[in-house]
Amino acid sequence: MVIRRNFLKQGSLMTAGLAVSQWGSATALSAESYQRVAGANRKINLACIGIGFRGGEIIREFEKTGLANIVALCDVDMGAEHTLEIMGKFSKAKQFRDFRQMFDQMGNEIEAVTVGVPDHAHFPVCMMAMALGKHVYVEKPMCRTFLEGELMIQAAKKHTNVVTQMGNQGHSEANYFQFKAWQEAGIIKDVTEVTAHMNSSRR
Asked: 113 - beta bridge partners?
């Protein structure tokens, strides 16, 4: 599972078009995933599960691409101070406090979901979404345990028409592809050590 800026534009908001824009930095949809995307460049009916804090940032970035039609908002703290901005911005979207009720009531209208809820809830939300044939973007970490990860991978493989992506920023940055190209061309060989630096004081 892979986002940030390339999710909407490179893949077209999942099967019905789930692509991604330049999302702060994101892991773009793979070429294989892109081949399964139908109707690229048309708006996708997107449900957003988790709309405060990081979830709200995700929603705003998807909206910027012009490829997302926000049809549903879901958050246990719907109406709290940190969710009011998103609720106001997408006032026409239906509102829910429980993602299960959201799928029950308007599953036929939803093509893809973003998952920006606390870590422990990523697994159940994503598993239900995939089982219902919805494309999924989930913020990192994808899950809590190795078992959850294996089950999610199996579900993604089982539902072949579903495109999935996890928010591992940086993995789609140009430097990753540059080093990959150098390695494949045989320019870089026998690497024994990598020293990395970050231009930010937060690490």
From this structure: 47, 136
pTM, 2 dp: 0.70
| The pair of three-digit structure tokens given for residue 203, joined into one six-digit string | 């690490």
Q: What is the 3-state secondary structure (H, E, C) of 163-183?
A: CEEEECCCCCCHHHHHHHHHH
Tokens of 117: 């809820």
Q: What is the pLDDT of residues 87-106, one digit of tens each?
A: 999 999 999 999 999 999 99
Structure tokens at 135: 């494309």
Q: How far is CA 70 from CA 91, 94, 153, 160, in A?
A: 10, 9, 26, 24
